[in-house]
Design a protein that fits this description.
This protein has 376 residues and is an alpha/beta fold. The protein is built from nine helices and 17 strands. The strands form five sheets. The chain has a seven-stranded mixed beta sheet, with helices on both faces.
Length: 376
């Protein structure tokens, strides 16, 4: 049994084609949100717009309000730069994610009255900046939600086309940007200066000695470094750096950040220099509901076949979806959809197999049916 008729499938394809032509960056998804809101209103949902600036929700009640199952889709695009020119492109599949959610909404619109609960669609801005989920939580979008379902297109290296995983485990992560301030001096009088390059070198050496639990997949690396650039007979007194930190464990990430702070303080003291820095809040690691994972497994096996059920997938990438479970008690799961993503996510030339959207929509519909007790 599937709620996805041929008409709904074609609707999903056409929706993605349209959304792909109007990519918009974080908190500027004005055309996207307007289009989605109009579509949902036409389907008979109660729509709220202007949440977290450009976010929106659509809600419909069946025989009772609870349980309430929510489906979350992100809307923003990637910002690319080429030869000094900035351009926007849907190169992370958010147009597909929104199309899947709209397809589910269309498929279930006239079925919800007979279901033992309610359904909510959450269209979120600003996933790429890591700010959207937090802002939507603050806007109260989960106040009446019991279960939350998320998903993302994947490349073959993680999940082959036609397959899905009930559990995509992202890493927690943050970035650190900073500056070192020593003392500029003449190249012939190095004893009168404090070389920013020496300070940066010490930071690299000492931070690279941080040891974390190897089971936590924690990694720390410098991704930006700058000092000097003027005359070669000038000892630079100022430099800057950037660091990327990732871990499968929220606790290990916090422990690593504390170790980095101590190294900053000790290095500054050793050189009698100043090190200023900012640590981004970043994104947390996942927390999934075991029962919801089992329901996702069952739905994938039923819709795609048991041979196409993948186990849990661990990826070093981050996802702000996990703020929903960090900041609330909602029961959540986040699935991986095999989609032949090529050459890769965030690549400006990214493409994917469009049929993957139908697979994802079918599985989500089956999960809703299972959770709300409608045998259709």
């Amino acid at each position: 049994m599937t709620y996805l008729t041929e008409d709904v499938k074609e609707y999903v394809y056409k929706t993605q084609q349209h959304l792909h032509t109007i990519p918009e960056p974080a908190f500027h998804e004005i055309k996207t949100a307007s289009y989605i809101a109009n579509e949902l209103e036409d389907m008979g949902y109660t729509v709220k717009t202007g949440l977290a600036n450009t976010g929106l929700t659509a809600y419909k009640v069946g025989k009772q309000k609870h349980p309430c199952v929510a489906i979350r889709a992100d809307m923003d695009c990637i910002i690319h730069e080429n030869n000094g020119k900035v351009f926007y492109r849907h190169s992370c599949g958010h147009d597909a994610h929104s199309s899947i959610a709209l397809g589910v909404a269309k498929a279930l619109a006239d079925k919800i009255d007979d279901m033992n609960g309610s359904i909510k669609f959450i269209f979120q801005p600003a996933e790429e900046t890591g700010e959207g989920a937090k802002a939507m939580v603050e806007a109260g979008v989960l106040s009446n939600v019991d279960y939350l379902i998320g998903y993302h297109l994947r490349m073959d290296a993680e999940c082959l086309f036609g397959k899905m995983s009930p559990s995509l485990y992202h890493s927690a992560g943050c970035t650190i940007t900073g500056e070192v301030q020593g003392q500029t001096a003449h190249g012939g009088r190095p004893h009168l200066g404090t070389n920013a390059i020496d300070i940066l070198h010490s930071l690299i050496t000492n931070i690279n000695t941080i040891r974390s639990n190897p089971l936590s997949a924690t990694n720390i690396k410098f991704t930006k470094l700058s000092a000097g650039g003027g005359s070669l007979n000038v000892i630079p007194g100022k430099g800057s750096f950037g660091i990327d930190v990732r871990s499968a464990s929220n606790e290990e990430l916090e422990a690593s950040k504390e170790k980095i702070r101590r190294i900053f303080d000790q290095t500054a003291q050793m050189y009698q220099a100043k090190i200023s820095y900012e640590m981004s809040e970043g994104v947390p690691a996942p927390r999934y509901d075991e029962r919801l994972e089992k329901i996702a497994e069952k739905a994938i096996s039923k819709v795609l076949g048991a041979d196409n059920l993948e186990g849990a997938i661990y990826t070093p990438g981050g996802e702000d979806f996990h703020y929903y479970t960090k900041l609330t008690d909602v029961k959540a799961v986040y699935m991986a959809i095999g989609a032949e993503v090529s050459p890769g996510l965030h690549d400006p030339n990214m493409t994917f197999n469009k049929e993957a959207m139908v697979n994802g929509a079918k599985v989500v519909c089956e999960m809703v049916r299972e959770l709300l007790g409608n045998e259709g």
